[in-house]
Amino acid sequence: MDDVLRPLIVVGGSVLLTLLLGWATDRLLRKADERHHDTPLWGLLRRARVPWQLVLCAALLRASYVEARVFPDHRESVGRILTLVLIGSTAYLVIRIAAAVVETTYTRYANAQYHRDPARVRRVRTQVTLIRRVVSAVVGVVAVAAMLLTFPAMRAAGASLLASAGILGIVAGVAAQSTLGNMFAGLQIAFGDMVRIGDTVVVDGEWGTVEEITLTFLTVRTWDERRITMPVSYFTSKPFENWSRGTPQMTGTVYWHFDHRAPLEAMREQLRDILRECPAWDGRAYNLTVTDTTPTTMEVRALVTAKDADDIWTVRVTVREQMIRWLAAEHPYALPRVTTAGAPEVPETGADGHRGTARVPAARRPRLSRKDG
Description:
The protein folds into 3 domains: 2-182; 194-242, SH3 type barrels (Roll), CATH 2.30.30; 250-334, Alpha-Beta Plaits (2-Layer Sandwich). The chain contains 12 helices and 10 strands. By secondary structure, it is α+β, with helices and mostly antiparallel strands. The strands form 3 sheets. Strands 4-3-2-1-5 form a 5-stranded antiparallel sheet. It has helices at residues 2-35, 41-45, 49-68, 75-113, 118-149, 152-156, 158-163, 165-175, 177-192, 234-237, 264-276, 309-330; strands at residues 200-203, 206-213, 217-222, 227-231, 241-242, 250-258, 281-293, 298-306, 346-349, 355-358. 55% of the residues lie in helices and 17% in strands.
């Protein structure tokens, strides 16, 4: 009877005490979250209740499993398993707590600085994300090392591993040269402020927004909802366009080809009216000029401004569409057209000094199709 009651009391008591402590901790964090709405720390810490309960349960069982006399023939193996669970759950808990603290610090900074300098907020966001990944990787490596050192064979081999660490490091560096290069490139991007999460970039002819940056790759979300994943070493070895560098404000152009008789002054006034009705225009500047001419048309360019890349696209398409619609309704003669009439007769002077009429050779006359009449 004692062999049955003792394990039940020890194991059941450990589990019950774990649940009670976990419930009490969660209640305290919930009350703190309700009192302090300005910080998300307490709400984020509540997400760590699962690893916290695992740590409590593993620690209680590790301290009392000897008294439970469970599997007496495998006491060492049970203790090692509980130790491994305790190390793993502790590492998980540390990662969750560190993530909560970092996220809270960033949130406070972003709320205070976003309206002043959005570019700095994006830079800090990129750095915080990579730092959190590095901390998680370090904690994970330390936890795995601690788990391995619980085995006597690993402790015995520790001296030889340390002695050959230099050679192993050189071999691993040569074998994983590309991976290590990407990792250092990721750190260079994070702290060199080359590109940040939320920046608008153009890479390999694709326009999009940086959505995620890790130590090895970078994800760009294009305007048509595609995701382009690229190694971070691309951004340290090749040129690319960063439209959000410094300031996200942009100047865009709209080109048309119109007839030479197009009313330029009226078009400038119409451009001003169109921009005033367009919410995406930031009101900084606009202009309309003739930039080139051809024998049949002239090229007209409009300059418009907006606060970022998304708004400049909206302004450009709005101006292009409404200007053509207005000209088609009010000044249709300004739209380009193709001349299909026959060439006029050219007077010429004959050998006797009299002026006659010469016709353009048939080979030089424009051919008219049946559709043209």
